[in-house]
Amino acid sequence: MQACSLLHVEDEDSSACLFRTALDYAGITVSVYRVSDGEQALAFLYRVGPYVTARRPELVVLDLNMPRVDGWTVLLKTRANDDLQKIPVVVLSTSSRSEDETRALSLGARRYVVKPPDFYGLVREVESICADFVPNVSRASRASASD
Length: 147
Fold this sequence. Notes:
With about 150 residues, this protein is an alpha/beta fold. The chain is built from five helices and seven strands.
């Protein structure tokens, strides 16, 4: 059985590494593909350029503030495409502005998550996101961050 796949769109290496570490800590087994800007995300999702053979992810975890093409544009373009709008998009952002959350949800994001200030908070968010949006997610037998 092939692991579920997740596209992580994050321009900061440290945040991307922390996200993967949180998945590992939670014992969640998914294939994570990471791109570092919105332009790469769109190329991946539309399967163009170096991503022509890319596997369509079951979930997109999207940062908003990125170089070249921002997360807002990625969200708009994925929601406007019949095939891509079926993929849930979860925004994972440092912005706690209610206007950003309202806008992201109105543009079609399935959830808006403010990046937690601590690692265990991130683990809990990752567990929740995967439980809700990744079909048949495989979990190792590790205690939850809330245990």
